[in-house]
Design a protein that fits this description.
Number of domains of chain A: 1
Shape of chain A: globular
Radius of gyration of chain A: 19 Å
Largest sheet of chain A: 7 strands, parallel
Order of helices and strands of chain A: HHHHEEEHHHEHHHEHEHEHEHEH
Strand order of the largest sheet of chain A: 1-4-5-6-7-8-9
Strand content of chain A: 5-15%
Number of helices of chain A: 15
CATH topology of chain A: TIM Barrel
Oligomer: homodimer
Distance between the termini of chain A: 28 Å
CATH class of chain A: Alpha Beta
Chain lengths: 341, 341
């Protein structure tokens, strides 16, 4: 195994000889190579075929010069073995054919074994790890219990998450049963990804910021904690990511994670102080800044680096995924700025 | 003029003999009376006809027992005299026929005189004020410059506000010119509403929480400040409302407002401490809680009241508008709890 590079060192808050940088959705629609593949294959096709998933995962590595790869996959893939029915309509996002609407729906969920039912993801990881340049680790990932539950209940993307919150408050026992199931599934799935070769794991709780702090603590935090514990048992660092957590960042961090991901709605130094110096931090450039002029990209990137102040444990990233309309050059500029500081 | 009731006293942080309560969108789709009217009239019809707008405004007053009325209108009505083309597709939200896409579009905006071009709103205010029970004041309102600009640029509702942010960063001069225009319009429109009889004014910056703190300070704050200054010149209290401001609440409050509105993503006591004791505060129950059982509604309502601790200057409200699927009984229960504390 080659010496750990900047990314893994930063996960452990070791001096890393410069700030590492990678981007959520760095394998995606902003890249011409990806769009070319997508003309021939659906999103689910790319996920289901380890050789294609590996190809997409590797596309941005040389092109951008990032410090880590992230597996091309979707957080909702576990919905297939869960029998919920998953599809992606063009430009519409994910659609769930059989959403969860009752305690009976939760009780009827079939058992899922990630080693078997998501074996194609683990196979893609082995493909990627064999092909990655030395020193570039692969990050595995999964959706967090809340974010998965919100898709399962809403039946797709949502603006207000009203159905999710209604279910949570009206059917608390079924809610907790659902999140326990998802936490076990996700925790074991993440651990399996580490065993297949992922050197770090990210838990995406992308939409949990829609909650009030007391709802987070009561209905979500124990389940995120369980998923992270199961994942960490595999011996690799876990990044705990969400957007919109400025109102309950302490509670979010308390659920676990070696690295806490924050979006752009809070200054990085303020966030790091609230998270505490015992954690690494990942973030926090607004992806929309990359649609603007280079001068703004430069100012904002340098501002985040200044707020991190060279302390060990900062991983540069966007506050959420790369937007499809992002110019490749903008991402390349950020990588150069971060590496050249 | 009758003695000021609880609501206006709380706006001035005077002991009000109990916490006042009203709800954003208390005149709206959750009420059978409103839905009955909507079967015969479009949203814009209701807005354009002062007698209908007044009828809708008054519907929830007796039914809920709230301490203030809020005018039935839409924040996007100024888009009609601005020539942007406004319509509401069923279940789709607002649609802007001629969105702003360039500096030339900004320069071409025609002058708007709220006294003339939005005279029907002022007429509706006079209708409402004549019909309101003694001691129940009417709140006038307008969209804040940022939130209006975001609709004008996106052409409707948005999830990520990417086009808005791109315009802001790429065309900063045109952006500031647009927001200056909107701030003047909105400020004069609000002042005119006070002159027509509104006893308080609310500036809705509903979507500004999508921004990074430095973007808020640079691209938005001066314009919100200007709008609030113009509105306050009419001599009535101004409520400055947004959602998702936990990351930059101090900056948001610094733009002005006698009362600062906060959503549910931050505990009320934490928010009030950050805003400072020189301001009143409005909020902060998650509207989705009203879709759940009465026991949860009660716990959450009492928790907010406990966090306010009976200090002068708390106006109970939701953190955003009433959801259409809310039972009337849930709102009635909150009013009883707040008044009965």
């Amino acid at each position: 195994m080659p010496a750990d590079g900047r990314f893994l060192k930063a996960c452990r808050r070791e001096q890393a000889g410069g700030t590492p940088v990678w981007f959520m959705r760095q394998a995606g629609r902003y890249m011409p190579e990806y769009r070319a593949l997508r003309r021939r294959h659906s999103i689910l096709d790319l996920c289901h075929h380890p050789d294609l998933a590996a190809e997409v995962t590797l596309q941005p590595i040389h092109r951008l010069g990032v410090d880590a790869a992230i597996l091309f996959a979707d957080i909702l893939l576990p919905f297939e073995p869960l029998g919920l029915g998953l599809s992606f309509a063009e430009g519409e996002g994910p659609q769930i054919a059989r959403p969860i609407r009752s305690a009976a729906d939760v009780a009827a969920l079939p058992p899922v074994d990630p080693l078997e039912d998501l074996a194609y993801v683990l196979e893609a990881i082995r493909h990627v790890v064999a092909a990655l340049p030395a020193g570039i680790p692969l990050i595995g990932f999964a959706g967090a219990p809340f974010t998965l539950a919100s898709y399962a209940i809403e039946g797709g993307a949502s603006r207000g998450f009203a159905a999710t919150k209604r279910f949570m408050h009206t059917e608390p026992r079924a809610w907790h049963a659902l999140l326990e199931r998802l936490a076990e599934l996700v925790g074991r799935y993440l651990a399996a990804q580490a065993e297949a070769g992922a050197r770090a794991l990210q838990l995406f709780d992308s939409w949990v910021g829609c909650l009030a702090p007391e709802d987070y603590r009561e209905y979500v935090q124990p389940h995120s904690r369980r998923a992270i514990e199961l994942a960490r048992a595999a011996g690799v660092p876990v990044i705990h990511f969400a957007t919109d957590t400025a109102g309950f960042l302490e509670d979010f961090a308390a659920a676990g994670g070696d690295v806490i991901g924050v979006d752009w709605r809070i200054p990085l130094d303020v966030a790091w102080q609230r998270i505490g110096s015992a954690r690494a931090i990942q973030g926090n450039l607004d992806p929309a800044v990359l649609l603007g002029p280079l001068s703004t990209i430069e100012t904002r990137t340098r501002d985040i680096l200044a707020r991190a102040g060279g302390r060990a444990g900062h991983i540069f990233n966007l506050g959420h995924g790369v937007l499809p309309e992002t110019p490749v050059e903008a991402l390349q500029a950020v990588v150069e700025l971060v590496h050249g500081q």
